[in-house]
Amino acid sequence: MSLPHTPFAFLLHYIKQFNTQFFFLIFFSFFWALNESLFPYFLKLLVEGVTNSSLVDFSLKNFQIPIIGLTLCWVAMEISMRLFGVIEVYLYPQFRSRMRQDVFDWVKDQSIDYFSSNLSGSIGSKIADIPKSSHRIVDHFIWYVIGTALLFFLAIVVVSQASLIFGGLIIVWCSVHMGITFYYLDEVQTKTSDHYESLAVLNGETVDIINNAISMKFFSRIDFETQRLKKFQETEITKSQVSGWALQKVNFLRGFVSLAFMFATIFMLLKGWQKGWLSLGDFPLVAMTSFHLMGMLWHMSLTLVDMFQDIGTLKGSLSLLKHQHSVQNKPNAVALEVDKGCIEFDKVIFGYSNREPLFN
Predict the structure, then answer these.
(1) CA-CA distance, 144 to 299, in Å (whole number)?
(2) Residue 223 burial (CB < 10 Å; 0-12/13-18/19+)?
(3) Cβ partners under 8 Å of residue 128, min gap 6
(4) Which has the closest alpha carbon to 169: 293, 48, 42, 30?
(5) Predicted TM-score (pTM) above 0.90
(6) Suppose 133 and one of 47, 194, 272, 310 were both cysteines; which one would form an S-S bond, judging by CB atoms 3.0 to 4.6 Å apart?
(7) Count of CB atoms within 10 A of residue 95's CB?
């Protein structure tokens, strides 16, 4: 058995095994984006209908299109999201299980030298992190990246009905916002990978110390191991802070750009109302669509950073698969059958320095 040891190839290898389920997850996520973009449009029609009608000829029949549109959007989204959740319930446990089993089978066939030169706690931590990080990466990509990308294109179409100015504002803001995100992604991923490696070593050392607790108590080594562990703790803290500051720098720049976009949108709404080229219904249409997209794009950009942090974690964990098996069975090798076990001591001598052996 051979497994890919790069994050993209590894994820694609397992996505192909569940391609039908993932197709429907992507399909149902589109309905969420449709609801979020069309809901403000039908609300605009409702507001303009109320504005243009009088109390004398007021009738619900005049609002059939916006009411039916709002209802259908919401019902379609609810049904799709419930189906989305049902698929997730059955898909992801199998998705994680197959990964975990394959990686475990790969590692268990390594040589004795491999296990003697690698901490068992670190190996176990990496095996556990592979399915967890893979699940988060795929789930975030489907739910936030694909859904928000569709919402972005639909939002441009919807707000451009009020004025092309608002569509242009969204394009400029999104371009700058995502440009900042992608510019710093490599730095965030690199520093996250460094932090993960230090955390994996710390976890491995902790597990191994606990596993040997009885021996340490016999030989009074508890205090020594406590002091030794502090060195790994300090390394993990330092690298965690470096990784955190890299993320905060990105957030500060994106926050400044988002604030500018918000004030520009409000200014143009007021200007359009003053000049008479915006209707009252355009206010909820543009404001809801723009600010909701701003919140979703912020969420997506934060999710992208989380995704690349998980990719860094997955990349570090997949280092397990880079160690080729030094000892391999022949094809169609016959399984060993052990009928009974036996331990024999032959020519064993034990003693201290030049003294008489304690036993011979």
Answers:
(1) 8
(2) exposed
(3) 100
(4) 293
(5) no
(6) 310
(7) 22
Report the alpha-carbon distance of residue 12 to residue 15 in Å, rounded: 5
End-to-end CA distance of the chain: 48
Nearest residue to 236 via CA among 244, 246, 247, 224: 244
| Cα(185)–Cα(311) distance, integer angstroms | 11
For residue 197, how far is the Cα from the chain centroid?
A: 18
Nearest Cα to 137, choosing from 126, 145, 128, 149?
Answer: 145
Residue 293: phi and psi, rounded to 5, are: -65, -40
Of 153, 177, 176, 159, nearest to 265 by C-alpha is 159
Rg (CA), the chain: 30
Whole-angstrom Cα distance, residue 196 to residue 243?
10
pLDDT (tens, 9 = 90+) of the chain, 360 residues, equals 678 888 889 999 999 999 999 999 988 888 888 888 888 888 888 887 777 766 556 666 777 888 888 888 889 889 998 999 999 999 999 999 999 998 888 888 777 777 777 767 778 878 888 899 999 999 888 888 888 888 888 888 888 888 888 889 889 988 898 888 888 877 877 787 788 778 777 877 777 777 776 666 666 666 777 777 888 888 888 888 888 888 888 888 888 888 898 889 889 888 888 888 888 888 888 888 888 888 877 777 777 777 877 887 788 788 877 777 666 777 777 777 777 778 887 777 777 777 676 665
